[in-house]
Design goal:
With about 350 residues, this protein is α+β, with helices and mostly antiparallel strands. It contains 15 helices and ten strands. Strands 1-2-4-3 form a four-stranded antiparallel sheet, covered by helices on one side. Strands 5-8-10-9 form a four-stranded antiparallel sheet, sandwiched between helices. Helix 1 runs antiparallel to helix 11, helix 5 packs across helix 13 and helix 8 packs antiparallel against helix 12. The protein is globular.
Length: about 350
Amino acid sequence: MNRRQILLGAGGALAAAACGTGAWRAATGTMSSYDDYSARRRAPLSSDIADVIRYATLAANSHNTQPWRFRVSRDAIEIGPDVSRRTPAVDPDDHHLFVSLGCAAANLAIAAAAAGYQGELAIDGQTIRYDFVKGVPHEDRLLAAIVRRQSTRTAYDGRAVPSSDLSALQSAAAMPGVDLALVTDSARIAAIRDLVVAGNDTQMRDVAFMRELKRWIRFNPHSAMMTGDGLFAAASGNPSLPTALGGVAFDRLFDAAAENDKYARQIASSAGLVVFAAERADPSHWIRVGQACQRFALEATRLGLKLAFINQPVEVASLRPELARVVGTTRRPDLVLRFGYGPALPFAPRRPVSQVLSS
């Protein structure tokens, strides 16, 4: 437990004593209710097209903003950007937004085939289209991982991943126009760790970044279920707080030095890192990065691994050239993840399908 968690936990205990258990639960909700909510969002797939979209929305995405809109016609599903969910401070050129669309597209293709909607994905600029015909269901080996994949922002156990599993991860994520660099040697992991820490330090001194981050944090189960989006505190191992108290704690206790130490420890506990880089810096290639990333994450989940994004060296533009040098690419890096063996944490919230459909 880091210093921030200890302080938040102490603050939570004092506040609970002051206002009473009943009032506390009314303000925060309960984890048992949240677990029921989460189980409904991750229920088994049916043949309903809405369920295919539900599975698509379980994809990884930046700040859990879920920046996508789905349009369904008789023989196609389109995925487009929801620009109202942009995060301009952390993602000024929208590359995370389009990566998120690609992650959703990867889930969509797997779930659609399993539900009997056989088809192909096509990228047209900023839009993805899945053209399908109704046929015999075909279940991909990655299907079951869709409901289990999560970003696990905690320490792992340090165990190495077998070389056969590393090869399986690379194969699952192979995508034209996307480079993947697997990093398992300690020297390069340490170099990337230093870039993550430097990027985190820069971001935490950026007022606009911190304001935007705070906007997307959900400090308790009630808030997470009501919004269906955002960064749920419990999903990072932090205590539940009433929203107002959580905001105060964020402003007063969210400390750059403690966060830097936390990232350094978590990276040191990981089995390896992976860096994705697109052939070109444009929406269609960022979508491809998202497809590759999601398939990597699903294969990792299938193999019993956990993952977490550590994107600071790509979000702070001045650090990208050094990250590219460390991993040996001439292309602009787009995503960084760490992976390893670790515990399960609560899942992130998701909005209902009705809220992501366009008429």
